[in-house]
Specification:
The chain has one domain (3-236): Metallo-beta-lactamase, Chain A, CATH 3.60.15.10. It has a seven-stranded mixed beta sheet with strand order 1-2-3-4-5-6-7. Strands 8-9-10-13 form a four-stranded mixed beta sheet. It contains eight helices and 13 strands. It has helices spanning 3-6, 59-68, 85-91, 103-106, 167-176, 186-191, 195-205, 225-232; strands at residues 14-15, 20-29, 33-43, 48-52, 70-76, 96-99, 114-115, 128-136, 139-146, 151-154, 158-159, 183-184, 212-215. The structure holds fe (ii) ion (FE2). The site of fe (ii) ion (FE2) has 6 residues, from loops.
Length: 238
């Protein structure tokens, strides 16, 4: 796998392993800033599919996904990642849509079927662990372990931005302090108001068995993900 494989919107599904597919989507944040965001799909033991952080899909991508399995679950895993839920529901009206706690208040126009909670994995055949990072009233995020693939899904708390084809974006990431390293998002850090609670949460998560980190923005970490996460959480003094 090369850097270019994962960066800046290589079209189509990328098959990470027999359990996980990913799709990167470049969009214009606030209509201006090109930003790559990622969707992932996990195939469960019964070959049904679970989708994380929806992005727009072409007809061809929908066809390929449907050949892989029946999409049953879609989770909007933090309060910021909900822009593409509408088109997803149009394509998959029978799927069960989950909201991270608090998102249902921001998206009153969208009918979620359930609010994510620690009980949620029972619906997902016990293949997952899920915890809620309740940063503040402005920020909640689901941290999700897929046990069979030993993958931890983190939305915005972690970034891994590598240099891209937009020089001014590289400068912006560098100024923001997140270029070319796995690090926590400075904005998300500031939105975690109860650090003692966050510390306790991540202490538990660091006991989980995972190797791979999939985050929404930047290159994934395939090996050594737990150590990278621990390093990125220096501000929690774990
Ligand atoms: Fe994001």
């Amino acid at each position: 796998m090369t850097e270019a494989t994962w960066l800046w919107g290589k079209p189509g599904w990328q098959h990470l392993n027999p359990h996980v597919w990913m799709k990167d989507h470049e969009f214009r944040f606030v209509g201006l800033v090109p930003l790559l965001t990622r969707m992932a799909v996990v195939r469960l033991a019964d070959h049904s599919l679970w989708a994380w952080s929806a992005v727009p899909l072409t007809d061809r991508e929908v066809k390929e996904l449907n050949e892989w399995g029946q999409l049953k679950f879609v989770i909007a895993p933090n309060v910021f990642h909900h822009f593409f839920l509408g088109p997803m529901k149009q394509k998959y009206p029978k799927a069960i849509f989950y909201a991270t706690p608090g998102l249902e208040k921001r998206r009153k126009d969208f009918k979620f079927d359930r609010i994510a909670s620690i009980e949620t994995p029972q619906d997902w055949q016990n293949e997952f662990e899920l915890r809620i990072l309740r940063g503040s009233r402005f920020y909640t995020e689901c941290l999700i372990l897929h046990k069979p693939s030993r993958t931890l899904f983190v939305v915005d708390m972690l970034f891994h931005q590598k240099e891209c084809r937009h020089p001014w974006i590289n400068l912006a990431w560098k100024a923001y302090g997140v270029l070319n390293k796995v690090t926590s998002s400075p904005i998300c850090r500031r939105l975690v108001w109860n650090r003692a609670e966050a510390r306790k949460l991540f202490q538990e998560i660091l006991t989980w068995d995972f190797e791979t980190l999939i985050m929404s923005h930047g290159e994934i970490v395939q090996n050594g993900g737990k150590e990278k996460l621990r390093e990125a959480l220096w501000w929690l003094k774990i």
